Amino acid sequence: MKRVDDFRLRFGKQELVPIVIGGMGVDISNAELALEVARLGGIGHISDAMVQTVSDRHFDTKFVSQKLKQYKHNVASSDKSSVQFNLAVLEEATRNHVRRSMEAKRGDGLIFINCMEKLTMNAPRDTLRMRLNAALDAGIDGITLSAGLHLGSFALIEDHPRFRDAKLGIIVSSSRALGMFLRKNARLQRLPDFIVVEGPLAGGHLGFGLDWAKYDLRSILDEVLAFLKNEHLDIPVIAAGGIFTGGDAAAFLEQGAAAVQVATRFTVTQECGLPDKVKQEYFKASEADIEVNTLSPTGYPMRMLKGSPGIGSGIRPNCEAFGYLLDANGNCAYIDAYNREVALHPKVKKLSVKDKTCLCTHMRNFDIWTCGHYTYRLKDTTRRLPDGEYRLLSAEHVFHDYQFSSGQTIALPD
Ligand SMILES: Cc1cc2nc3c(=O)[nH]c(=O)nc-3n(C[C@H](O)[C@H](O)[C@H](O)COP(=O)(O)O)c2cc1C
Fold this sequence. Notes:
Bound molecules: flavin mononucleotide
Shape: globular
Mean pLDDT: 98
């Protein structure tokens, strides 16, 4: 029986353990986790979601309070079009975040950054251009484009000196999306270095509708591999979503994937950025506690624990401090939902908004607990302590379990 360790991911002459830890914003796949994975010879992701908040958390910056101060006069207004990000600040925050990871990197692995197109930040092109260029400036090994079709994203960095040397890839959930991306970027004569194919069992936002259960990763992977063969393209394909054991991973590698991207099992590691008490919620979850809903203002379905404290919360939109989901016209679906409730219940002090959530605020506070479909199996990956808590795992333990276990075996900690 094959194990993941029988395979290697090749980028030119470079050989890596074919395990990628997916980006998990906001600062869930943090620098500590990415560094550990790079040390072990795989690929770790940081995420640039809400990077100004992340910079404040780890450096002595005050970007969030400064932005709030600048736009405080607008807090009660439902028109958020004037609430713009300062691009120089965005650049500094991104550089801080990336540099910290790259300077601390040890070992043969790589660190990539996950950049979601849906973080439209009230000026989609300008902010994305700055995010991507600043990450390249700060020495990131690679960029994974996600949560969007990214038809124009390569063009935003085509003049960067590292455009052809950094590893650039995209997450897709169908060969159709991949075809569109390749066609749109043909003039740049710069193919992606990798393609992540994400199936419907992943965490975070899904590239499927509410009929996600009709799709399966194995078939989509086959479809993408056939598409690439037909186009005579040799690009490593990375399978993602619901790959829970080393045996699952090895099966995808045998099917033709060049690597696997995993995330959920790393949410309960010591290194992961979630607070410890939230990690216990992930361990405790049963299958019935997990849902795919439409609460995200992005319009993409999202998988999360039903007990997430942010669900149903009716807080005032926090765009003056955050505003990462404001579209090019300063709109966000949560603002509309919130204003509707205010109009319906003008006297109520504590509102509840049921159909959308203020994702910026609640992801920042770790109050929306997004997770993969198999979160309910996490309890089978560890031991229980005498006080009833589940024992957190080291990222090294989980990484090695993926790398060396075969079949459906899961190595428990000593
Ligand atoms: C807590 C959590 C947060 C995530 N956040 C993001 C994100 O910010 N951007 C993204 O592209 N994918 C995100 N994902 C998806 C992962 O990067 C990954 O592709 C997927 O979850 C892999 O499947 P698995 O969790 O079943 O192993 C997230 C996943 C989890 C579990």
